[in-house]
Amino acid sequence: MRDLLRVPVGEPVDLSAYDTSRHPSAGPADKAAGSRATALMAPELAELQERLYAASTAGDRRRLLLVLQGMDTSGKGGTIKHVIGGFNPSGCRVRAFKAPTAEERSHPFLWRIERALPLPGEIGIFDRSHYEDVLVARVRELAPRRELSHRYGRINRFERSLTDDGVTVVKVFLHLSYEEQRERLLQRLDKPEKHWKFDPGDIDARERWPAYRRAYEIALERCSTDEAPWYVVPADRKWYRNWAVGTLLLEHLRALDPRYPEGDFDVAECRRRLLAD
Amino acid sequence: MRDLLRVPVGEPVDLSAYDTSRHPSAGPADKAAGSRATALMAPELAELQERLYAASTAGDRRRLLLVLQGMDTSGKGGTIKHVIGGFNPSGCRVRAFKAPTAEERSHPFLWRIERALPLPGEIGIFDRSHYEDVLVARVRELAPRRELSHRYGRINRFERSLTDDGVTVVKVFLHLSYEEQRERLLQRLDKPEKHWKFDPGDIDARERWPAYRRAYEIALERCSTDEAPWYVVPADRKWYRNWAVGTLLLEHLRALDPRYPEGDFDVAECRRRLLAD
What's the whole-model pTM score? Predict the structure, then answer.
């Protein structure tokens, strides 16, 4: 799926050309098949994660960072619950980025990001990220235009430094339709136990939908690089989204092909000592 | 299980009086029943976690910290994988404490602990903890005796400050037998893909087993408090250990009884606006 979902480097991005319900040429046909296929990936994903972690104990600095971005209700939280939930929590570092605190605002915008990066052997997951600083910051004019326009280059250099340091950066835009967002917000209103997830401000944000969409297009256009490409995942169907993100992770982890390190001790001697005492 | 596994406050602790295979009067009869019972807890645990997290969005500062301690191979990692693995990773903050780094050694021993605490609404999990500073530090004489003896009081005051701040502290000692540890170390030797978890130093540590055991007894004796008691979980059988830790978490979360916050917005008006646009 990497090749199918990747945003081409250096080309203009028109999100209306990307399907929100499924990629036209790939993926399971329906929910039953999709859920089954996602469940079948879990053991391999778990083993690859264990190997990545094991390799780090012998000095392998490689790790993976999954960046999740998308409009409200696009399923960032659901993806973490259903896809990342299959990993061993010991090797995962999940971080949600909300509106920056006073302390965070007193630092450059990448400061809080750098402090949340995965360590060697870990899988890091960002629920929102440094891209908020060119998305909401652009739409709401939270920074001078000139500062904003410099941020794309800073992000690219930052991500390049990560990949140089062994971080595989997988950036996923969960692509949701305007209509499906309406449905999901209505569903939250229907269930009192979902009201804590609801913010009337989310309705105001819908009025700025075209502005957000354009901000995403620019970010994808300027920050899909060879080292750290963006992937557009159709997000109107939860089962398809889970399958697609799981598949992206699987393909990247397979490509890393981390290995269990060999022990540098005398196995027979250790066994003798254990049996002797 | 809380009442059965809790270490009584202010009484001498003799670990030989605690069973390593199962509590004599509670728990499933065999592996099949135990695995089934553990699986049956998962939905309620997940819902309680979601409610805890949801409540924090409305200002509830409560959270839970699970501290896991035990000899090598006692199953700290396995507990995290199997019990914590059922939670939503978004609300979990897992931290493993290894031998302190140079930076960590330059600070008081609680410094690195304070930086890893769960935020309101989260479940924090410590794989080893500040107790290492009265366990390995005592056995290996890594600090002056006088400093060591002050640490118990500091730990109690620190944990008291946590519980005052809304943290439910659940401290679990995974109680493993000397014989079962031998078996587990031999099993690691038998499997090349487990060699990365094996350290010949673990065999050396077995020679100090009585010293470690005594250090645990003292820690449990001096730091099992009304606010933050210790629990001794029999750990020779993985399925029993998982069931017991899951049950302890369930009982504590049920006692917290976190509630979904009510929305403070006009549901009908929001619905109208959503349908209008």
Answer: 0.95
B266 Cβ neighbours under 8 A, 6+ residues apart: none
Q: What is the mean pLDDT of chain B?
A: 96
Closest CA to A252 of A46, A8, A64, A7: A64
Q: Which of A57, A127, A270 shows the shortest C-beta gap to B189?
A: A270
d(CA A69, CA A143): 20
- Read off the pLDDT of residues B225-267 as tens digits, 9 standing for 90 and up: 999 999 999 999 999 999 999 999 999 999 999 999 998 899 9
Question: What are the chain A neighbours of B274 within 8 Å (beta carbons)?
Answer: 182, 185-186, 189, 203, 206
Mean pLDDT by 10 residues, chain B (277 residues): 94 96 91 96 97 96 98 97 94 95 95 97 98 96 94 98 98 98 96 94 93 97 98 98 98 98 92 91
Residues B84, B160, B53: CA angle, nearest 5 degrees: 35
8 Å CB contact between A193 and B260: yes
Chain-chain contact of A198 with B263 (C-beta, under 8 angstroms): yes
Interface contact flag, A90 B90, Cβ < 8 Å: no
Q: By the CB < 8 Å criterion, does A45 face chain B?
A: no
The DSSP secondary structure of B13-58, one letter per residue, reads --GGGS-SS--TT-S-SSHHHHHHHHHHHHHHHHHHHHHHHHHHTT
Cβ contact, residue pair A195, B261, below 8 Å: yes
ipTM surpassing 0.90, yes or no?
yes
Ramachandran class of A121: left when φ > 0, alpha when ψ lies in -120 to 50, beta otherwise: left
Share of chain A above pLDDT 90, in %: 97
State the 10-residue block means of pLDDT for chain A, 277 residues long: 94 96 91 96 97 96 98 97 94 95 95 97 98 96 94 98 98 98 96 94 93 98 98 98 98 98 92 91
Q: How many contacts (CB atoms, under 8 Å) link A and B?
A: 122
C-alpha B257/C-alpha B255 separation (Å) is: 5
Q: Name the token pair of A75.
A: 């399923």
> Which chain A residues are closer than 8 Å to B195 by Cβ?
260-263, 265, 267
Contact A196 B265 (CB under 8 A): no
Shortest Cα distance, chain B CAs vs residue A53, angstroms: 10
- CA B208, A58, A86, B185 torsion-angle sign: negative
Give B270's contacts in chain A (Cβ within 8 Å): 185, 189, 198, 200, 203
For every residue of A200-222, DSSP letters joined together read: THHHHHHHTHHHHHHHHHHHHHH
Question: Is residue B2 within 8 Å of B251, Cβ to Cβ?
Answer: yes
- Answer yes or no: are the C-beta atoms of A240 and A234 closer than 8 Å: yes
Whether B80 and chain A come into contact, CB under 8 Å, resolves to yes
Q: Specify the residue for token string 């430094």.
A: A161
Which amino acid, residue B22? R
Task: Determine the distance from the C-alpha atom of residue A157 to the mean position of all C-alpha atoms in its chain, rounded to a whole number.
Answer: 19
Q: Do A196 and B260 touch (CB under 8 A)?
A: yes
